[in-house]
Design brief:
Blueprint: H1 19-29, E1 37-38, E2 43-44, H2 46-55, H3 70-77, H4 84-87, H5 116-140, H6 153-156, H7 173-194, H8 261-264, E3 270-271, E4 278-279, H9 284-287, H10 291-318, H11 320-331, H12 335-338, E5 343-349, H13 354-357, H14 362-372, H15 377-380, E6 388-394, E7 398-405, H16 425-436, E8 450-456, H17 463-475, E9 478-485, H18 497-508, E10 512-516, H19 522-532, E11 547-548, E12 553-559, E13 565-571, E14 576-583, E15 589-595, E16 600-607, E17 613-619, E18 624-632, E19 636-644, H20 645-649, E20 669-674, E21 686-687, E22 693-694, E23 699-700, E24 725-730
Parallel strand pairs: 5-6, 5-8, 8-9, 9-10, 11-13
Antiparallel strand pairs: 1-2, 3-4, 6-7, 10-12, 12-19, 13-18, 14-17, 14-19, 15-16, 15-18, 20-24, 21-22, 22-23
Helix pairs in contact: 2-10, 5-7, 7-10, 10-11, 14-19, 16-17, 17-18
Length: about 750
C-alpha cells in the first residue's frame, strides 16, 4: 500500500485526441511514467498522481510545509491544463535519456554488449543531470524574497499557471523553483519505472526477463545532495531505449541483445488518489506480480524524500529564516498572507532557581536574541505583515511584562528579569496563551500562526497542570517550544514518567522539547527553535524534514516506525563529536551517521532494549555535512544529544551569547571576545590592523578600518596591542546583512 496523501480527485475528463495526436503524445512520453491523461493511448497522468500522493495536503487543510496547497501543487504536479514542473521533461520534444535514467542496462553474462562499469557510467550521467536540476531550483528560490526578508508578491503568485517547456523560459521565481524541483522529481520517479530496483521476477533470467532486486526503499544513489560517484548493486539495470517506434522485446537496432525499456518499464496503470491503490498495469513487466504498484510505492516515498532534502538544502544555502519563508512561499497558495505576520510569546523563568543555574542571566540574552530575529513594523513597511510578540515573566505567578505588540522595543522588557521566589511554568505558559488568544490583532490570527518559547531553569511540580496548558495551546493551533536549563546528571538516569508526559504534550503541538546542558547553550536552543520553526506556518521542522542539532542540547523525539527521524549538523575540521541516542520506551533503534556529500555511512549503532543508549563518535578531518538517521522498530520516544570539542573549548571566555557553530552555514553567528590582544589566547583567532578577526578557517570581518575599543565602538587609533570587547553578528549570505549591538556594520563574506 502506498503511503497516501489526500488530494482532490482528478476529473475523469480525458484529452479528446485524434489518432495522429495520440501517436505524437505516445512518442513524446513513451520513455517515462506517463504525464497526460488519455484512455486512447493508455496514459493516466502517472507522474502527476505520484506527486499528488506524495505531497498533497489533506482537502481544505493549510500547508504544514510537508505538503502543498492545491494551486501550488498544480504547478508542481500538473493538472488537466498543464504538465507542471514534474511533467516538464515530457513537453515535446522531450529531454534525452539522462532525464529519464534510460540506457543504463546490464545483464550479468560474459557476452552482454554493455559492461557493469559502462552501465554505471550512463546512470551516473542521469544522476548528475538530476543533481543539476535540483541546484537550478535551489538557486531560483532566492528571488522569492527581497533583501529585507519580505516575500515578493509578483514572484510567488499562482493566479495563473506557470509556463514550462522544453527550453526553460524564466518566469516567476516560484515557477522557476518548482520547475527545477519538478524536473528532478521526474527523473527520480522514472528510475523506479525504468529499472528493476523494486521488481520481482521469476527465473530463468535473460535480457528479455532480467532479475528483480525486490527493494522497497528509495535508492541511496538518488540522494541528489551527494557529490560523490554513485555505487550500484551489480544486477541493477534500466532499459535501453532505441526510440518510440522501435522500442521492443527482444531489442532492436542499437538495443539488439540488450535489456530494453520495453522489457523493464512499468510506465502505465491506474493510481487511485484516495486509497493509493494501483490497478490495471499497462505493460508486461508491470503485470508481473505487483511490479507496477511496487514501482509507484517507492516512487512516492522518494518524492517525499526529495522534498525533504530540497528543504534541507534551502536551509543550508540560505539559513533557517530565509529558507523558512521560501518553503512557505512554495507550498502556500497565498504566501503574502500565510507566510508573514506571526504572533509569538517569550516566556521567561525569574524564580530563585536561576540564581545558581544561570547566575549571569544568559536566558535573558538568548530571549533578546530571538526577539531581534523577528520582523518588526519598520522592516515590514507597507507591503508586508509584521510579527507581533509578547513577553511573560513567571515565578509562582505570571506577569505579562510586554503586551502583544511590535518586536522593536520588546527586548527592553527583559531587563527587569531577576531570580527570586518559587516557580510555576504552567502559570507562565497559561498567561502567554491568554495574551496570544486575545481577540483579533489586525491581519494576524492565532491558529497555526502562533508560537510560544519557554526558557526555564526549574521543573514544575504540578506537571499535570503544565501538560494541560500545553494541550490547550495545541487546541488553539499554537506551537510550543520548551527549553529546560538542567545540567546533565552524572548517573545517566532515565527521565521520570512525568517529564516524558510533558515532552509528549509539547511534541504534539509540533513543537520542540530540549534539555539544555549549560547557560551557554541557551542561544543554541534559540537557533534550533528558529530552524525548527516557531509556528506551524514556518518550515515544518522536526525530525521528518531534517532537524538541526546543536551542541549542549538533548532533544526528545517521537519514534515513528514508518520512517526514520533525520538530524543534521555541519562539522568543522578538527572537531570531535559525540552523538548520544537514548531509547525511552521504544524497543529498537537503528542509528546511522552519514556524510551527506559523499553519501557514505560513517557508523551504525543499535539499541536492543527500551532503555538502551548508544554513542556515535567521529573525529572530523575536514568540514562535513552530517546526517544522523534514527529508525525505530516500534512507536515510542527517544532522545538525541550532541557534544562537540570545538563548541566547548574553542574560545576561553566567560559564558556569553555565542553561535560558535551554526548548523546551517548561513545562520547568524555571534562571537564575543573579552580582554584580548591581537592574538586571542587559546583560540586561534587574530585581528589585523583593519579590524579583521580571523582563525584561518572562518573569515569573519568587521568593516571598521581601525581597532574596536573596549566599549564596543569604533576606535580611531588602531594599535598593535589593544583590548577588544568586540561583538559581531555575521551573516554569510550576501543579501542578509545585519549590524551588531554596538552599531558596527559587518562585512559579508559568502562561503565563510
Amino acid at each position: 500500500m502506498v503511503q497516501k496523501r489526500h488530494s482532490a480527485a482528478i476529473p475523469a475528463t480525458t484529452f479528446k485526441t485524434s489518432l495522429v495526436l495520440g501517436v505524437l503524445l505516445a512518442a513524446a512520453s513513451v520513455s517515462s511514467f506517463y504525464t497526460v491523461e488519455s484512455d486512447i493511448i493508455g496514459q493516466h497522468s502517472e507522474h502527476e498522481r505520484i506527486t499528488r500522493l506524495a505531497l498533497a495536503c489533506p482537502p481544505g487543510a493549510a500547508s504544514t510545509r510537508d505538503c502543498f496547497e492545491p494551486l501550488s501543487l498544480n504547478q508542481l504536479a500538473g493538472d488537466r491544463r498543464t504538465f507542471g514542473g514534474v511533467g516538464a521533461p515530457d513537453t515535446p520534444p522531450p529531454e534525452g535519456p539522462e532525464a529519464h535514467c534510460d540506457d543504463a542496462d546490464f545483464f550479468d553474462s560474459s557476452d552482454y554488449p554493455q559492461s557493469r562499469e559502462d552501465a554505471t557510467e550512463v546512470l551516473q550521467k542521469c544522476v548528475t543531470h538530476l543533481r543539476g536540476r535540483m541546484k537550478e531550483g535551489l538557486a531560483e528560490a532566492e528571488l522569492m524574497l527581497n533583501d529585507k526578508n519580505q516575500i515578493v508578491k509578483g514572484q510567488v503568485n499562482v493566479d495563473s499557471d506557470c509556463i514550462f517547456g522544453p527550453i526553460s523560459v524564466k518566469g516567476r521565481a516560484k515557477c522557476n523553483t518548482l520547475e527545477g524541483l519538478g524536473r528532478a522529481l521526474h527523473g527520480v520517479q522514472d528510475f523506479y519505472s525504468h529499472s528493476n530496483w523494486a521488481d520481482t521476477a521469476e527465473p530463468p533470467f535473460t535480457p528479455e526477463n532480467p532479475p528483480g532486486l525486490e527493494l522497497t526503499e528509495p535508492a541511496p544513489l538518488l540522494d541528489l545532495r551527494s557529490r560523490a560517484p554513485i555505487s550500484v548493486p551489480r544486477d541493477l539495470s534500466t532499459g535501453c531505449f532505441a526510440g518510440p517506434l522501435v522500442d521492443m522485446t527482444p531489442g532492436f537496432l542499437t538495443c539488439s541483445g540488450r535489456v530494453t525499456h520495453n522489457t523493464l518499464n512499468k510506465d502505465g496503470g491506474m493510481i487511485n488518489l484516495e486509497s493509493g491503490n494501483t490497478t490495471s498495469p499497462f505493460t508486461d513487466r508491470g503485470k508481473i506480480g505487483n511490479n507496477f504498484g511496487r514501482a509507484v510505492e517507492v516512487a512516492v516515498k522518494d518524492t517525499q524524500r526529495q522534498w525533504q532534502h530540497f528543504r534541507s538544502e534551502l536551509r543550508s544555502k540560505y539559513g533557517p529564516v530565509r529558507a523558512g519563508l521560501m518553503i512557505c512561499a512554495l507550498t502556500s497558495d497565498d504566501p503574502a498572507q500565510s507566510c508573514q505576520g506571526r504572533k509569538l510569546a517569550v516566556v521567561l523563568d525569574s524564580s530563585r532557581f536561576n540564581a545558581d543555574i544561570d547566575p549571569e542571566n544568559l536566558r535573558t540574552a538568548a530571549a533578546k536574541g530571538f526577539i531581534d530575529m523577528l520582523h518588526n513594523q519598520e522592516q515590514a513597511g507597507d507591503d508586508s505583515i509584521p510579527d507581533l510578540v509578547t513577553v511573560v515573566g513567571f515565578r509562582d505567578a505570571a506577569k505579562v511584562i510586554y503586551p502583544l505588540g511590535d518586536p522593536s522595543i520588546a527586548g527592553i522588557a527583559l531587563d527587569g528579569i531577576d531570580a527570586h521566589g518559587e516557580s510555576s511554568v504552567a502559570s507562565g505558559l497559561g498567561a502567554a496563551i491568554d495574551e496570544l488568544a486575545k481577540g483579533a490583532h489586525g491581519l494576524v490570527g492565532t491558529a497555526h500562526k502562533s508560537g510560544i518559547v519557554v526558557f526555564t531553569s526549574s521543573a514544575d511540580e504540578d506537571t499535570k497542570r503544565l501538560v494541560n496548558q500545553v494541550s490547550r495551546a495545541r487546541a488553539l493551533g499554537i506551537r510550543v517550544a520548551l527549553g529546560h536549563l538542567s545540567p546533565p546528571s552524572p548517573k545517566r538516569e532515565d527521565p521520570p514518567a512525568s517529564l516524558l508526559d510533558l515532552a509528549t504534550a509539547v511534541l504534539d503541538t509540533r513543537g520542540l522539547y530540549a534539555e539544555i546542558d549549560t547557560p551557554r547553550a541557551l542561544t543554541n536552543f534559540v537557533e534550533m527553535f528558529v530552524a525548527h520553526g516557531p509556528t506551524d506556518h514556518d518550515d515544518g521542522g522536526g525530525a521528518g524534514s531534517g532537524m538541526a542539532l546543536l551542541p549542549g542540547l538533548t532533544v526528545f523525539i517521537p519514534a515513528a516506525s514508518s520512517h526514520p527521524s533525520i538530524f543534521t549538523y555541519t562539522a568543522r575540521a578538527g572537531e570531535k563529536l559525540g552523538f548520544s541516542i537514548h531509547a525511552l520506551g521504544t524497543e529498537y533503534l537503528n542509528s546511522t551517521l552519514w556524510d551527506v556529500r559523499s553519501a557514505t555511512a560513517l557508523d551504525v549503532e543499535e539499541t536492543t532494549d527500551s532503555h538502551g543508549r548508544v554513542t556515535i563518535s567521529v573525529d572530523v578531518v575536514t568540514k562535513l555535512e552530517l546526517e544522523l538517521s534514527v529508525h525505530a522498530k516500534d512507536p515510542g520516544m527517544f532522545s538525541v544529544g550532541l557534544e562537540s570539542s570545538v563548541w566547548s573549548g574553542q574560545l576561553k571566555r566567560k559564558p556569553t551569547m555565542s553561535y560558535p557553530n551554526a548548523t546551517c552555514p548561513h545562520v547568524v553567528k555571534t562571537i564575543t571576545v573579552l580582554y584580548v590582544s591581537r592574538t586571542f589566547p587559546d583560540s586561534g583567532y587574530t585581528a589585523d590592523d583593519d579590524g579583521y578577526i580571523q582563525n584561518g578557517k572562518d573569515n569573519i570581518s568587521m568593516s571598521s578600518h581601525s581597532g574596536i575599543g573596549n566599549d564596543g565602538k569604533r576606535s580611531r587609533t588602531p594599535t598593535a596591542n589593544v583590548e577588544f570587547h568586540a561583538e559581531a553578528e555575521i551573516t554569510d549570505h550576501p543579501s542578509t546583512g545585519r549590524t551588531n549591538r554596538a552599531g558596527t556594520e559587518i562585512a559579508n563574506h559568502p562561503g565563510t
